[in-house]
UniProtKB/TrEMBL annotation, chains A, B:
Organism: Micromonospora vulcania
Location of the HTH tetR-type domain: 6-66
Alphabetical list of Pfam families matching this protein: TetR_C_27, TetR_N
Assigned keywords, A-Z: DNA-binding, Transcription, Transcription regulation
Ranges of the DNA-binding region feature: 29-48
Protein name (database record): TetR family transcriptional regulator
Domain of life, per lineage: Bacteria
Length: 198, 198
């Protein structure tokens, strides 16, 4: 059924995701992935040098599904405050939708990401970097006054963790979550607007 | 050894904590607590109507150990911004110290609190209420301008979750955590200082 001459990294990652969904991160093996593709595990190892490398690639692709669509928001031409609101609402909305639609897969991916520390650290830097771009644009446009957009981007991401960090997923069904997010974001945007008193 | 005539709720809670430390929340029973005290489980039930009631009382007392010392900070005579900084640093510091000194007990208590939803909700309201007091004092002193100190108190607590919410305990050993907290708090305080543009 499968065409082994066309065994791409992408097809392996698709199969690995499916295996992960079925067995969970603790039990899934490279052999399971190879079996799902109808190839030898050697064929998989030609693309991914180790189980850890495959696991990291799966985590990376999953996290990119969150961060990539946000680039468009981060680089749009809207006023910076409006962009920030939309960016943070989309990040939170994407995570909450993923957690709601397939809670088990979400928990599995979260577990997988937790053991791929470098991948998560990189993901968080990408997100904070996008926020820094918005802040820097706001400074350039005279909307915001902050001395270091990189520090501000990181602070914005951390201050909104409750609304996008998977560790909080049990709280995401609480009523009033969108109001809570709006209140936090409004306070943060007011903070960016303030001239530092240093 | 034990004086059953003096079986107080406090002594039962002490014993329950010890049992919880030893067996974890899933395995600990009321009978274990009674045995540790050398009394019948009926004697325990005279103070706590059910296992759930005992569990909630343990969680409540644990959380009060975090919130009670903060009252003094919330009601001190320092300028509001300084008080906020100290209050948030103390909350984060207390949680981090607890998690570091006895990680297993901390994880057990966190698990216990999670199944005592009303207790946690009440604890969070107490904390947000203390923050609201600081914000309201800052407004009265002309330091802050916010339309609703209650909303601001809640937002301040949520925006700093990464630094005090037990779900983030795995991240608390990361280097630079105090700098991160300082950056988030500085941004939030600047937000309070801003006049709303509504």
């Amino acid at each position: 059924m499968s065409d082994t001459t066309a065994l791409s990294a992408g097809r392996i990652l698709d199969a690995a995701e499916e295996v992960l969904r079925r067995y969970g991160p603790a039990k899934a093996t490279v052999l399971d992935v190879a079996r799902a593709l109808g190839v030898s595990h050697g064929s998989v190892y030609r693309h991914f040098a180790s189980k850890a490398a495959l696991r990291e690639a799966v985590a990376e692709r999953w996290l990119a599904r969150v961060s990539t669509p946000l680039v468009e928001v981060a680089t749009s031409t809207e006023p910076a405050a409006q962009r920030l609101r939309r960016w943070l609402a989309e990040l939170s909305g994407t995570k909450r939708r993923m957690a709601r639609e397939d809670p088990e897969l979400f928990a599995n991916f979260h577990q997988l990401a937790e053991v791929s520390e470098g991948v998560v650290a990189n993901h968080l830097e990408v997100l904070a970097g996008q926020l820094s771009v918005i802040v820097a644009d706001g400074v350039a446009a005279g909307e915001f006054t902050v001395s270091d957009p990189a520090v501000a981007g990181r602070a914005l991401l951390q201050a909104t963790a409750r609304f996008h960090h998977p560790a909080h997923r049990a709280e995401w069904s609480e009523p009033g979550l969108d109001d809570d997010l709006a209140a936090v974001v409004a306070l943060l945007i007011d903070g960016l607007r303030t001239r530092p008193t240093g």
